[in-house]
Amino acid sequence: MTSTVIDQKVTGYSVRHALCMARVAELAYKDEPAIDKAAREWGFDRVRHHHTTFRPPFPLEDTQAYTLGGRDMIITAFRGTEPANMRDWLSDTTTPPWPGPGGKGYIHYGFAEALESVWPQVHNAVHEFRDNGQTVWFTGHSLGGALAMLAGARLHFEEPYLTATGVYTFGQPRTCDRLLTREFDAAFTDRMYRFVNNNDVVPQLPPEPAFHHVSTLRYIDSTGKIHSTMPVITGLFDHAKGYTADLLAPTSDGVRDHFMGAYITALEKNQN
Questions:
Q1: Phi-psi region of 133 (alpha: psi -120 to 50; beta: other; left: phi over 0)
Q2: CA-based diameter of the chain, in Å?
Q3: How confident is the model at residue 57, as a pLDDT?
Q4: How many angstroms separate the CA atoms of 228 and 213, rounded?
Q5: Could you tell me which of 206, 173, 194 has the C-alpha nearest to residue 81?
Q6: Do residues 175 and 107 make contact, with C-beta atoms less than 8 angstroms apart?
Q7: CB 10 within 8 A of CB 17
Q8: What's the domain of life for this entry (predicted)?
Q9: Which of 80, 100, 154, 212 has the lowest CB atom count within 10 Å?
Q10: Over the stretch 76-135, which tens digit does the pLDDT of each residue have?
């Protein structure tokens, strides 16, 4: 993919574009020279790197993201983190929630704090690069997926004249309450694509009923096939194929299915 130019004219969903967005999300884990090199190869002539250190009441040290600017497309990708690093605070329901974008519902405090720390940089880059009516996209894996979804919500509800063309997330945790999910679903019909790979543990956190997922789902079954929904009976059977007692054990299916490489492999398979 690093030698393939991203089609900047895309405006809708396709598996190929999902693969491109997955590659962009994966690149967020790399260093700045690697990101700059890939940006040029993908056909983007401008890059801004976003890095903010902060100390919220959670074991996260920083937020990292980058924004690509091209002639017809702008993409911001947020970096994720390892499941074990998120386990405790994703499971903690005692922390007071944070008001959602535009006063719509509530979101998990940790996600809100992480996005808040880097949002001014992201916001400025998007506005700086958008000099040709470019489409705007957000993507991310794991924690980065939560931040991508919330960035899309923040842009839409706080600046409704500039709504993201699409949001693609991979292994995203639950981010917000039922009110915000309802408002987000209505605003992002056919523009939000939340990929979940089989037994990936992170989308199962934080726990319900305090937190919820946005509706749009692209479920990857145990064979790597992508579905637009997860049938209850077959989904339970499919989950059981790889289930282990400790989903957060380093060798468990829940963690293996969370790796960004597993998402990319499945998307590559669905190109055929």
A1: left
A2: 52
A3: 62
A4: 15
A5: 173
A6: yes
A7: yes
A8: Bacteria
A9: 212
A10: 999 987 666 666 566 666 677 899 999 999 999 888 988 999 999 999 999 999 999 999
